[in-house]
Amino acid sequence: MSRFRLPEHGRLNSARRIQFRFDGQRYVGLEGDTLASALLANGVHLTGRSFKYHRPRGILGSGPEEPNALVEICRDDARRQPNIRATMQPLYDGLEAISQNRWPSLGFDIGCANGIFSRFLTAGFYYKTFMWPKAFWHRFYEPYIRAAAGLGRAPTKPDPEHYANRFAHVDVLVAGGGPAGLAAALAAGEAGASVLLCDEGASFGGWLKAESSTTIDGVAAMDWVDGVVARLAGMTNVRLMPRTTAFGYYNHNMLVLAEQVTEHLAEPDPALPRERLWQVRAKKVVLATGSIERPLVFPDNDRPGIMLAGAARLYLNHFGVAPGRRVAVFTAHDAAYAAAIDLKRAGVAVPVIVDLRAEPPADITAEARALGIEVLEGYEVKTVRGTRRITGFTVEELRSGQDNRRFDCDALLMSGGYTPSVHLFSQSRGKLAFDPALQAYVPAEPAEECVSVGAAAGDFDLAKTIGSARNAGRVAATGKAGKAAAVAVAGAAPFGGGMAGATPAAGAGKFVKAFIDFQNDVTAKDIRFAVAEGFHSVEHIKRFTTTGMATDQGKTSNIHGIGVAAEALSRPMPEVGLTTFRAPFTPVTFGTIAGFAKGPLFDPTRKTPIHDSAEAEGAVFEDVSLWKRAWYFPKGADMHAAVGRECRTVREAAGLFDASTLGKIEVVGPDAAKFLDVIYATPLASLAIGKCRYAIMLNEAGFIIDDGIVARIGEDRYHVTTTTGGAPRVLELMEDYRQTEFPDLKVWTTSVTEQWAVIAVQGPKARETVAPFVEGLDISPDAFKHMSVAECTVMGVACRLFRVSFTGEAGYEINVPADYGRAVWDRLREHGRSLGAEPYGTEAMHVLRAEKGYIIVGQETDGTVTPADAGLAWAVSKKKTGFVGKRGLERSDLLAPGRKQLVGLKTANPLTVLEEGAQIVADPNEAVPMTMLGHVTSAYHSDAMGRSIALALVKDGRNLIGRTLYVPMPKETIAVEVTDTVFFDPEGERLHG
């Protein structure tokens, strides 16, 4: 067995042996080990090099807080993942791990030369160093910085794994599977609630795994855990999710989880996803996320072999691994004594406990001394010996500054106290409060329906934790607190003490490397330097020094960084504040976030129900948003000729157009009219049943963001159409306002885009094409006028028939259930042949609508165009007291003269078609830079007009109608006449048939 594996300790004694490699060296571990515990069992502490100085670094912690032991896990060239915490990587047979941030080897790293120049590489040095000479930036500085930046190597080959995405709705989500989480989940489950319990570990139990002699209600702690887990597993209303990290907490109690499905398997089932992303909406959330042990900030506190006391205790009592043969302890907290005592009882030499406190509790010091451990009260570690592994240290008495004694060791455990893990609570926008006793922040005012329990709430009394967690689970499930049963706990580790900031040996004026942020190589001196540079905000200090940034998110560094800054600023810690915790709590792979969205599914292709018919007729397709739309139908001709033919067909006979891609939203409810009246600038509450109205949607600044037809189907039912690309955005905006601004309105919105296939029939013979198939509705010109809507049947299929037009011709839009779309299209197509009707594509549609001056949002608008700019002031209500964008429209800059307005353009040469986006000027001879008046938004050749036409946004455009302007192009300057936007049938007579 491995040199540091203790056969009589831990819970893996009967586990099978597993072989693995680290940096090419073969080792043996046990099933159930993490990579970190297996390395420690083999006496390996050196696992990496630090980011900036390339100092030797070893395993510090035992969980997601680990800042040093970041390794690359390599299954093959394609499945290579950097920056995996060795403390979180399950061991499997054949695992291959590679250390990072070193060259040519971990033992001999040339990058450690950075340490020689460390006095010049202070915090923020890069803001001042690479400024001169200027020519060096591109030739030397930037290439070097880019080469040195980042940790690990990103894979270069495509990821062959697949990932999954799941959604869940539960009554209670419990984040954390320690004693608090288990107690809360059991209480909620027994109350009948649907419960999801997740924990990042391979098994449940939390910090109880580190306990050696704790009992709960007379049962050994881990036996109690096994019993609770078994009861939960037997409940059909409870989902247990180990190896699952809750990494993000968002609005409306939505939490995002990352489940590792196969990371612990040597030969994963190829049918299984590697990881699975869960998006969970919970009525109530119980945060039982525990706490993170703080290191101590003293000179050279980063040497391999120096680790957190709580982590060492877990390695001993759960994995059966001793961190060394001669292990010393440096602490400011009671809990470290438990680690020293457990190690001593396991037969490991523990020469000394160095306690910063002058008077630690007498009972725990007496127990340690009774075992033969020397306890030095009021002492500190002043210096550390050893480079790639600690070999010893020197202590000093704080009161006198004397008694400088040396101790030999191969491991040094440290504890500066415990920080509640408030990351998720903070992400949910909950407010935190500073607890002076803990010298840490704890949850105060929640912003979501959540409660923090146990160590996450700053409660480290096990009996109290279990009792309060049971009550929290019961309240979360039922809304009522039950009678709390007493919990009997014995043998739990002592808890008390702690410190924030640096030890005296790393105090102000001491030129030592005492690390606060191990991952980013930030020292106490760096924090003081940032303050001296004038950075007094904790957020500024964070960015200047990089403390608490990147994947670490301040897990072990935040409190010490704030403590040092507070001392330097002569302020209390609460006045310094706390940095913002951002998702994810721990790194999440891009594959997990992308889920199914890779390869062909990265940008899914959407096809309309009529797609196959268009394809059979040889249509050329274009991508519009996610849709494939028929662009034009060649029939042996080039695009120009084909589009001309399609336009003539619509103007002279009839055209069939697949409009199924238009967004369609059903707005239903007693307050539907009132709701639409505030969402759209157009008056819609006054719309009569059976009528349609063109409507424009504005953002709060008063600019056009979408348009469409709104039809009133019934007293409390509207059929709203949007632009093809705008459908998701419009629905999201409606839901946002419905839920946040108008929650009292009784109205519901539903996307029905894919429910209806839409066939637009346009042209002088449109009625003849449609009439034979319409049943139960008189569509004569007087009975079914323009801008009417009715429910009827077409070919025996339920239909919503619209009398609308986007071409200026008499038009109908036939909405039928999607399953019948192609059949209805094919029959209309066959019948229309005798009338000269033909299908037309999106390019012809663009030409036809431009001839009538109809806008396309995103083409005639660019996010700065108001209804008045676009010539649509008539579509804005003058009577409504309020709607989205009304106040924006009243801004003085939107009412000032000189705004760009939509106008038409005719080129002097009727055969010249302008380029869309081309700039427009008044004086073609003006020196560069010329004064730009506007730009061309749309330009086409119009067969109906026998010439080119264009639409443009031009400064004061309507006052320039009749004037000649110019469009400078690389080879020529094109003269254009400013005209009205309507080129064809300005009186609109054809529209009414």
Describe the model.
The protein has 993 residues and is of the alpha+beta class. The protein is 22% helix and 28% strand. It is built from 24 helices and 52 strands. The strands form 13 sheets. Strands 8, 9, 12, 13, 14, 15 and 28 form a 7-stranded mixed β-sheet that branches. α17 crosses α22. The model has no long low-confidence stretch (mean pLDDT 93).
Helix and strand topology:
Layout: E1 17-22, E2 25-30, H1 35-41, E3 46-49, E4 56-58, E5 70-74, E6 80-85, E7 95-99, H2 125-129, H3 136-148, E8 164-175, H4 179-190, E9 195-198, E10 215-216, E11 219-220, H5 221-233, E12 238-241, E13 244-250, E14 254-260, E15 275-287, E16 291-293, E17 306-308, H6 309-317, E18 327-331, H7 335-345, E19 352-355, H8 362-370, E20 374-377, E21 379-385, E22 392-397, E23 405-408, E24 411-415, E25 418-420, H9 423-427, E26 431-435, E27 440-445, E28 450-452, H10 462-478, E29 489-490, E30 515-517, E31 522-523, H11 524-532, H12 538-545, H13 558-569, H14 573-576, H15 590-594, E32 606-607, H16 611-616, E33 620-624, E34 627-632, H17 639-652, E35 655-658, E36 663-668, H18 672-679, E37 692-698, E38 704-714, E39 717-722, H19 727-740, E40 748-751, E41 756-762, H20 766-770, E42 774-775, E43 788-794, E44 797-803, E45 811-817, H21 821-833, E46 838-839, H22 842-851, H23 886-889, H24 892-895, E47 900-907, E48 919-921, E49 932-942, E50 947-955, E51 964-968, E52 973-979
Helix pairs in contact: 4-5, 4-10, 6-7, 7-8, 11-13, 17-22
